[in-house]
């Protein structure tokens, strides 16, 4: 806010032109005579802050001024206490956050170690699985070959058992067995083995 001395130094035409700041409303604008009269009285920065006659000039008694001073001191002390409590709460919250961050970092390290262990187990399981699949394929191939061999042996045995009566020497013959001629069932058995 402008003091009266500063207001006297201002050009009123410039203030009223709309380009500057006008500290008064249009209804309460003081006249030049009022401004001049105000400059003749000594101005103090805060007439209510001094004791004695100045307090009476402000309309306050010494008791009221003392009560006001005590009230200000209580407010300052309360503000200081509130600020101290606020700082303590901030510090406590900061310590809690630091503890939480440390706990989360430790948990992250633990989880990373567990993840590495699980990855190693998974890799070993994949290797075992691939080995077992290869073994299973080899065993399945051997099983098919064994079944085919067994089927051929059975077929050969059946053919031999059918051919024995034909191999007996003919009466009065030369003792040479006639050539074996397989029956229609033998061709079907051989075809099923080839598939």
From TrEMBL:
InterPro entries xref list: bZIP, bZIP_sf
Pfam families reported in the protein's UniProt record: bZIP_1 (PF00170)
One GO cellular component term noted in the UniProt record for this chain: nucleus
Keywords: DNA-binding, Nucleus, Transcription, Transcription regulation
Domain BZIP: 69-115
Signal peptide, first to last residue: none
Transmembrane domains' residue ranges: none
Chain segments carrying region Disordered: 68-94
Domain of life: Eukaryota
GO biological process: positive regulation of DNA-templated transcription
Biased segments, Basic residues type: 70-91
Protein name: BZIP domain-containing protein
GO MF entries: DNA-binding transcription factor activity; transcription cis-regulatory region binding
PANTHER family, per database record: BZIP TRANSCRIPTION FACTOR 44 (PTHR45764), OS03G0770000 PROTEIN (PTHR45764:SF21)
